[in-house]
Amino acid sequence: MRKNLAAKIGLVCIALYCAVIPFAEGGMQSTVWKNVSSGIKDSEVKTITVSPDNPEMAYAGTRSVVYQTMNGGKIWDEVLSFRGTDNIVLTIESDPIDSKIIYAGTKKGLYASNDRGNSWSKLYHNIGLPESIVLSVAVSSSEPSIIFIGTGKGVYRTDNRGKDWKRDRNIPNTVVSNIIIDRINPQRIYASTSMGLYRSLDDASSWSRLSIAAAGQYEKEEQNKENNASEKNKSNTNGNEEDEILAETQLRNIAIDPLNSSKIYFGSQPASQQPES
Fold this sequence. Notes:
The chain has helices at residues 2-9, 217-223, 225-236, 241-248, and strands spanning 17-25, 28-35, 47-50, 58-61, 65-69, 77-81, 89-94, 102-106, 109-113, 121-124, 134-139, 147-151, 154-158, 166-167, 176-181, 189-193, 196-200, 208-211, 251-256, 264-268, 272-273. The protein is mainly beta and 277 residues long. It has a single domain (2-22, 31-273), classed as Methylamine Dehydrogenase, Chain H (7 Propeller), CATH 2.130.10. Strand 1 (17-25) and strand 2 form a beta hairpin. Helix 1 packs parallel to helix 4 (241-248). The radius of gyration is 19 Å and the shape is globular.
Protein backbone atom coordinates (compact mmCIF):
# COMPACT_ATOMS: atom_id res chain seq x y z
CA MET A 1 0.00 0.00 0.00
CA ARG A 2 2.93 2.35 0.64
CA LYS A 3 4.02 1.99 -3.00
CA ASN A 4 0.48 2.72 -4.14
CA LEU A 5 0.37 5.87 -2.01
CA ALA A 6 3.57 7.14 -3.61
CA ALA A 7 2.19 6.50 -7.08
CA LYS A 8 -1.07 8.29 -6.31
CA ILE A 9 0.61 11.39 -4.94
CA GLY A 10 2.56 11.60 -8.18
CA LEU A 11 5.21 13.98 -6.82
CA VAL A 12 7.83 11.69 -5.32
CA CYS A 13 11.62 11.97 -5.60
CA ILE A 14 14.08 9.19 -4.83
CA ALA A 15 16.59 11.85 -3.83
CA LEU A 16 16.58 15.62 -3.61
CA TYR A 17 18.32 17.43 -6.44
CA CYS A 18 19.19 21.07 -7.05
CA ALA A 19 19.79 22.94 -10.31
CA VAL A 20 23.15 24.64 -9.97
CA ILE A 21 24.75 25.50 -13.32
CA PRO A 22 22.69 26.83 -16.22
CA PHE A 23 24.74 27.02 -19.44
CA ALA A 24 24.23 27.39 -23.18
CA GLU A 25 25.21 24.69 -25.64
CA GLY A 26 24.42 24.96 -29.31
CA GLY A 27 21.93 27.74 -28.64
CA MET A 28 19.93 25.63 -26.16
CA GLN A 29 19.69 26.23 -22.45
CA SER A 30 20.70 23.27 -20.29
CA THR A 31 20.87 22.74 -16.57
CA VAL A 32 23.19 20.62 -14.48
CA TRP A 33 21.66 19.01 -11.39
CA LYS A 34 23.43 17.64 -8.34
CA ASN A 35 22.24 15.52 -5.45
CA VAL A 36 21.75 17.63 -2.31
CA SER A 37 20.04 15.07 -0.09
CA SER A 38 22.86 14.56 2.42
CA GLY A 39 21.28 13.84 5.79
CA ILE A 40 17.90 12.77 4.43
CA LYS A 41 17.49 9.18 5.55
CA ASP A 42 14.29 8.41 3.65
CA SER A 43 13.95 7.47 0.00
CA GLU A 44 10.85 9.50 -0.86
CA VAL A 45 10.81 13.30 -0.75
CA LYS A 46 7.19 14.33 -1.22
CA THR A 47 7.13 18.07 -0.58
CA ILE A 48 9.58 21.00 -0.46
CA THR A 49 9.31 24.65 0.50
CA VAL A 50 11.98 27.37 0.38
CA SER A 51 12.25 30.29 2.78
CA PRO A 52 10.75 33.46 1.25
CA ASP A 53 13.74 35.60 2.25
CA ASN A 54 16.64 33.14 2.35
CA PRO A 55 17.13 30.75 -0.59
CA GLU A 56 19.71 28.80 1.42
CA MET A 57 17.02 27.73 3.89
CA ALA A 58 14.53 25.06 2.83
CA TYR A 59 12.34 22.31 4.25
CA ALA A 60 11.70 18.87 2.78
CA GLY A 61 9.04 16.42 3.83
CA THR A 62 9.28 12.65 3.55
CA ARG A 63 6.62 10.17 4.64
CA SER A 64 7.33 10.61 8.35
CA VAL A 65 9.90 13.42 8.75
CA VAL A 66 10.32 17.13 8.05
CA TYR A 67 13.93 18.07 7.29
CA GLN A 68 15.59 21.50 7.27
CA THR A 69 18.69 22.82 5.51
CA MET A 70 20.35 26.13 6.36
CA ASN A 71 23.06 25.92 3.69
CA GLY A 72 21.38 25.25 0.37
CA GLY A 73 21.09 21.49 0.80
CA LYS A 74 24.62 20.65 1.88
CA ILE A 75 23.31 19.24 5.17
CA TRP A 76 19.75 18.35 6.21
CA ASP A 77 18.59 17.94 9.81
CA GLU A 78 15.38 16.46 11.18
CA VAL A 79 13.12 19.07 12.77
CA LEU A 80 9.84 17.11 13.03
CA SER A 81 9.49 13.33 13.13
CA PHE A 82 6.52 10.97 13.20
CA ARG A 83 8.60 7.80 13.08
CA GLY A 84 7.00 5.00 15.01
CA THR A 85 3.51 6.45 14.55
CA ASP A 86 0.87 6.15 11.85
CA ASN A 87 1.01 9.88 11.07
CA ILE A 88 2.23 11.01 7.63
CA VAL A 89 3.70 14.29 6.35
CA LEU A 90 1.70 15.43 3.31
CA THR A 91 2.65 19.07 2.69
CA ILE A 92 4.91 21.87 3.97
CA GLU A 93 4.37 25.61 3.57
CA SER A 94 6.35 28.70 4.64
CA ASP A 95 4.79 31.89 5.92
CA PRO A 96 5.24 34.38 3.02
CA ILE A 97 6.13 37.24 5.40
CA ASP A 98 7.78 35.71 8.47
CA SER A 99 10.33 33.07 7.48
CA LYS A 100 10.49 31.75 11.06
CA ILE A 101 6.97 30.30 10.68
CA ILE A 102 6.55 26.91 8.98
CA TYR A 103 3.44 24.77 8.55
CA ALA A 104 3.29 20.99 8.09
CA GLY A 105 0.09 19.33 6.93
CA THR A 106 -0.24 15.71 8.01
CA LYS A 107 -2.68 12.82 8.11
CA LYS A 108 -3.61 13.91 11.64
CA GLY A 109 -3.87 17.66 11.33
CA LEU A 110 -1.81 20.82 10.85
CA TYR A 111 1.38 21.54 12.78
CA ALA A 112 3.17 24.89 13.03
CA SER A 113 6.58 26.12 14.13
CA ASN A 114 7.28 29.75 15.04
CA ASP A 115 11.03 29.29 15.44
CA ARG A 116 12.27 27.71 12.19
CA GLY A 117 11.41 24.19 13.25
CA ASN A 118 12.90 24.11 16.73
CA SER A 119 9.49 23.50 18.32
CA TRP A 120 6.07 22.56 16.96
CA SER A 121 2.45 22.79 18.04
CA LYS A 122 -0.76 21.43 16.53
CA LEU A 123 -2.98 24.17 15.07
CA TYR A 124 -5.76 22.08 13.58
CA HIS A 125 -7.21 18.62 14.00
CA ASN A 126 -10.65 17.16 13.54
CA ILE A 127 -12.47 14.29 15.18
CA GLY A 128 -11.27 11.80 12.59
CA LEU A 129 -10.59 11.04 8.97
CA PRO A 130 -11.02 12.43 6.39
CA GLU A 131 -11.31 16.00 7.74
CA SER A 132 -8.09 15.64 9.75
CA ILE A 133 -6.02 14.89 6.63
CA VAL A 134 -4.38 18.18 5.61
CA LEU A 135 -3.34 17.89 1.97
CA SER A 136 -2.56 21.55 1.30
CA VAL A 137 -1.81 24.80 3.15
CA ALA A 138 -2.09 28.36 1.79
CA VAL A 139 -1.13 31.47 3.76
CA SER A 140 -2.28 34.93 2.69
CA SER A 141 0.61 37.22 1.71
CA SER A 142 -1.40 40.32 2.62
CA GLU A 143 -2.57 39.02 6.01
CA PRO A 144 -0.56 35.97 7.21
CA SER A 145 -2.99 35.31 10.05
CA ILE A 146 -5.40 34.07 7.36
CA ILE A 147 -4.68 30.42 6.53
CA PHE A 148 -6.56 28.01 4.27
CA ILE A 149 -6.16 24.25 4.40
CA GLY A 150 -7.38 21.66 1.92
CA THR A 151 -8.46 18.46 3.65
CA GLY A 152 -9.87 15.08 2.75
CA LYS A 153 -13.29 16.65 3.11
CA GLY A 154 -13.43 20.34 2.27
CA VAL A 155 -11.65 23.65 2.83
CA TYR A 156 -11.11 25.07 6.31
CA ARG A 157 -10.06 28.63 7.16
CA THR A 158 -8.68 30.52 10.13
CA ASP A 159 -8.40 34.30 10.46
CA ASN A 160 -6.29 34.22 13.63
CA ARG A 161 -3.41 31.80 12.93
CA GLY A 162 -5.28 28.70 13.97
CA LYS A 163 -7.05 29.74 17.16
CA ASP A 164 -10.41 29.17 15.47
CA TRP A 165 -11.31 27.27 12.30
CA LYS A 166 -14.42 27.17 10.18
CA ARG A 167 -15.32 25.10 7.15
CA ASP A 168 -15.84 26.97 3.90
CA ARG A 169 -19.40 26.07 2.95
CA ASN A 170 -19.16 27.81 -0.43
CA ILE A 171 -17.04 25.05 -1.94
CA PRO A 172 -17.99 21.35 -2.23
CA ASN A 173 -17.34 19.21 0.82
CA THR A 174 -14.93 16.91 -1.00
CA VAL A 175 -11.22 16.11 -1.35
CA VAL A 176 -9.19 19.33 -1.76
CA SER A 177 -5.68 18.37 -2.83
CA ASN A 178 -4.24 21.83 -3.41
CA ILE A 179 -4.94 25.48 -2.56
CA ILE A 180 -2.97 28.45 -3.84
CA ILE A 181 -3.37 32.19 -3.23
CA ASP A 182 -2.41 34.73 -5.88
CA ARG A 183 0.47 36.74 -4.38
CA ILE A 184 -0.32 39.75 -6.59
CA ASN A 185 -4.05 39.68 -5.86
CA PRO A 186 -4.65 37.78 -2.57
CA GLN A 187 -8.40 37.97 -3.11
CA ARG A 188 -7.94 35.40 -5.89
CA ILE A 189 -7.69 31.82 -4.65
CA TYR A 190 -7.62 28.50 -6.51
CA ALA A 191 -8.48 25.05 -5.18
CA SER A 192 -8.13 21.70 -6.92
CA THR A 193 -10.73 19.17 -5.79
CA SER A 194 -12.05 15.78 -6.79
CA MET A 195 -14.90 17.68 -8.47
CA GLY A 196 -12.66 19.96 -10.53
CA LEU A 197 -10.76 23.23 -10.29
CA TYR A 198 -12.40 26.08 -8.36
CA ARG A 199 -11.60 29.79 -8.24
CA SER A 200 -12.60 32.56 -5.86
CA LEU A 201 -12.20 36.23 -6.73
CA ASP A 202 -13.43 37.57 -3.39
CA ASP A 203 -11.31 35.98 -0.65
CA ALA A 204 -13.33 32.75 -0.63
CA SER A 205 -16.70 34.45 -0.16
CA SER A 206 -17.81 32.62 -3.31
CA TRP A 207 -16.35 30.02 -5.67
CA SER A 208 -16.85 29.04 -9.31
CA ARG A 209 -15.76 25.84 -11.03
CA LEU A 210 -13.32 26.27 -13.92
CA SER A 211 -12.94 22.66 -14.99
CA ILE A 212 -14.48 19.26 -14.43
CA ALA A 213 -12.39 16.51 -12.86
CA ALA A 214 -10.02 15.02 -15.40
CA ALA A 215 -11.36 12.24 -17.63
CA GLY A 216 -14.80 12.55 -16.03
CA GLN A 217 -13.73 10.28 -13.20
CA TYR A 218 -15.91 12.00 -10.64
CA GLU A 219 -19.11 11.37 -12.59
CA LYS A 220 -18.14 7.75 -13.15
CA GLU A 221 -17.34 7.29 -9.48
CA GLU A 222 -20.69 8.73 -8.46
CA GLN A 223 -22.53 6.37 -10.80
CA ASN A 224 -20.64 3.36 -9.55
CA LYS A 225 -20.48 4.35 -5.88
CA GLU A 226 -22.97 1.75 -4.71
CA ASN A 227 -21.33 -1.01 -6.74
CA ASN A 228 -17.91 -0.12 -5.38
CA ALA A 229 -18.99 0.25 -1.75
CA SER A 230 -18.56 -3.42 -0.91
CA GLU A 231 -15.13 -3.60 -2.56
CA LYS A 232 -14.07 -0.45 -0.72
CA ASN A 233 -15.01 -1.96 2.60
CA LYS A 234 -12.91 -5.00 1.78
CA SER A 235 -9.90 -2.87 0.84
CA ASN A 236 -10.12 -0.98 4.14
CA THR A 237 -9.13 -4.14 5.94
CA ASN A 238 -5.78 -4.12 4.13
CA GLY A 239 -5.16 -0.46 3.28
CA ASN A 240 -5.25 3.05 4.68
CA GLU A 241 -8.04 5.57 4.32
CA GLU A 242 -5.66 8.34 3.33
CA ASP A 243 -4.55 6.25 0.33
CA GLU A 244 -8.13 6.16 -0.94
CA ILE A 245 -8.65 9.88 -0.34
CA LEU A 246 -5.57 10.78 -2.35
CA ALA A 247 -6.73 8.48 -5.14
CA GLU A 248 -10.10 10.24 -5.45
CA THR A 249 -8.74 13.46 -6.90
CA GLN A 250 -7.24 13.66 -10.40
CA LEU A 251 -6.01 17.28 -10.03
CA ARG A 252 -2.72 17.41 -8.16
CA ASN A 253 -0.98 20.79 -8.18
CA ILE A 254 -1.61 24.39 -9.22
CA ALA A 255 0.85 27.09 -10.27
CA ILE A 256 0.29 30.77 -11.09
CA ASP A 257 2.47 32.46 -13.70
CA PRO A 258 4.53 35.00 -11.67
CA LEU A 259 4.54 37.40 -14.62
CA ASN A 260 0.88 37.01 -15.52
CA SER A 261 -1.38 36.08 -12.61
CA SER A 262 -4.35 35.61 -14.93
CA LYS A 263 -2.62 32.51 -16.32
CA ILE A 264 -2.66 29.40 -14.14
CA TYR A 265 -1.58 25.81 -14.65
CA PHE A 266 -2.73 22.66 -12.91
CA GLY A 267 -1.20 19.22 -12.94
CA SER A 268 -3.56 16.33 -13.48
CA GLN A 269 -3.63 12.73 -14.55
CA PRO A 270 -2.75 11.84 -17.21
CA ALA A 271 -1.62 15.28 -18.52
CA SER A 272 -1.11 18.93 -17.64
CA GLN A 273 -3.71 21.42 -18.75
CA GLN A 274 -4.12 25.19 -18.80
CA PRO A 275 -7.71 26.33 -18.22
CA GLU A 276 -9.02 29.65 -19.40
CA SER A 277 -9.47 32.11 -16.55
